[in-house]
Structures are given as structure tokens and as C-alpha cells.
Specification:
Shape: globular
Largest sheet: 5 strands, parallel
Number of helices: 8
Structural class: alpha/beta
Helix content: 40-55%
Order of helices and strands: EHEHHEHEHHHEH
Strand content: 5-15%
Radius of gyration: 15 Å
């Protein structure tokens, strides 16, 4: 495990898991949202993002957490191809909607883990609900089949519950 991509729907625990994994492995963590968004919450120019992303995935080791630009999947798939370990967090939709709402409530008092500095929690939550509504178009059986095609080339973990998520680091799950 030297190049680890952690991805999935919004508010599924990617930031929390990636921080724990970075701490336990000593591998540098790169959160996509912190790269893609400026401190005011606005996106950086696409070419700049792609250059930063490319410079990260060519390094010897990294943990990259997140998805990236919705209208360009190139960087996401480049990351999956460069990684030796894929961690797909795929919690049920009712759990995800609850976690987004919980993050909003908590975020009114404390900045959520992995939340871009200076970004509005309310505007971000509204955007997250919109993204979540569109998620089944991407996070679906076809995507899972694409992941299975990576099998053998890299280790793949598919986390489907909060209990699996909570025990991932201490009890490595069998890849699918």
C-alpha cells in the first residue's frame, strides 16, 4: 500500500478514514476538495487542478481522498489507474443523507473534517444534496463492474456499512 485512492459518495467518511490511514501509514494525504477549491470555496482553474493532480499521482506514495471535478472524470480514472489500493466507500443512500444532514448541523458550530476553508456549510450542503441526488448515475452497478476489472492489478476494498468503515484500519477487509 503506497498509492491509495479513497472515493465514494459525499459525507461517507472518506476524510475521516483517509486521515486515520495517513496517520497509521505515514503516507502523505491529499484531499481533492482542498486542491480543487480555493479558500473562498470557488474552484481553481481546471488546468491548474490537473497539473497539481498529475504531480501528486506520479509520486512514489500518496493517499488521495475524494472524487474531483464532476464534469471531467479523467483525473479520477487516472488516479484509479495509478493507485495500488482502491477504497470505495459505498454506504446506503439513507445513511448518506443522514450523514450530510448531521454534518450540516455539526458544521454550524465546528468546521467539518475535510471541508474547504472559508466555504459556506449551508451552500455546500445544498450543493451536496444536489450531487447526492445525481450519484446513482455514477455510483452504480456499472461502476462496480469497472472496479472489478481492476482486480488483480490492485487491492480493492468495498466498504458498505458504518461498522465496516469504523473497523477498516484495524481489521483489513477482504478485497472484492
Amino acid at each position: 500500500m503506497q498509492k491509495i485512492a479513497i472515493f465514494g459518495k459525499p459525507a461517507n467518511g472518506k476524510s475521516t478514514l483517509s486521515k486515520q490511514l495517513a496517520y497509521s501509514t505515514g503516507i502523505k494525504l491529499h484531499a481533492i476538495d482542498s486542491i480543487f477549491y480555493q479558500s473562498d470555496g470557488e474552484e481553481i482553474p481546471r488546468k491548474r487542478f490537473e497539473a497539481i493532480h498529475e504531480s501528486i499521482i506520479t509520486k512514489k506514495s500518496w493517499i488521495i481522498e475524494g472524487f474531483g471535478p464532476l464534469n471531467s472524470l479523467d483525473s479520477f480514472y487516472a488516479r484509479l489507474k495509478a493507485a495500488d489500493t482502491l477504497v470505495y466507500i459505498d454506504l446506503p443512500y439513507f445513511t448518506t443523507y443522514w450523514l450530510v444532514t448531521k454534518r450540516l448541523i455539526k458544521g454550524l458550530f465546528v468546521k467539518p473534517d475535510g471541508w474547504p476553508e472559508g466555504s459556506s456549510i449551508i451552500k455546500g450542503t445544498i450543493k451536496t444534496y444536489k450531487i447526492l441526488k445525481a450519484c446513482p448515475q455514477f455510483w452504480n452497478d456499472d461502476f462496480e463492474e469497472q472496479l472489478r476489472n481492476f482486480k488483480g492489478k490492485r487491492t480493492i476494498y468495498h466498504i458498505r456499512s458504518i461498522s465496516e468503515l469504523n473497523s477498516f484500519i484495524s481489521n483489513a477487509k477482504k478485497p472484492f
